[in-house]
Amino acid sequence: MINRDTQLCMSLASRPGNFGTRFHNYLYEKLGLNYIYKAFTTQDIAAAVQGVRALGIRGCAISMRSKRAACRFSTLSTLLQR
């Protein structure tokens, strides 16, 4: 059930489809996780990455087409830096 504590996971895809969204949401439900997955498309990857950070989005997958551009705007997590 979606409520105020539901965490958003998302993808930035050049051509978002329904399969990944349905698959993620099915697994979240089966695992009892209070998450929802939604796919988005954007022409402004810098603004999208900034929005992901600003909104505290739990996780964001990025399609291959946009990964290189997104890397310019991302930082390594402290876990990955070790």
TrEMBL record:
Record key words, sorted: Oxidoreductase
SUPFAM superfamilies found in the cross-reference section: Aminoacid dehydrogenase-like, N-terminal domain
UniProt xrefs under InterPro entries: Aminoacid_DH-like_N_sf, Shikimate_DH-bd_N
Protein origin, superkingdom: Bacteria
Keyword Oxidoreductase: yes
Pfam families: Shikimate_dh_N
Domain Shikimate dehydrogenase substrate binding N-terminal: 22-73
Root EC class: oxidoreductase
Record keyword Oxidoreductase present: yes
GO MF assignments: shikimate 3-dehydrogenase (NADP+) activity
EC identifiers of the protein: 1.1.1.-
Record-given protein name: Shikimate 5-dehydrogenase-like protein HI_0607
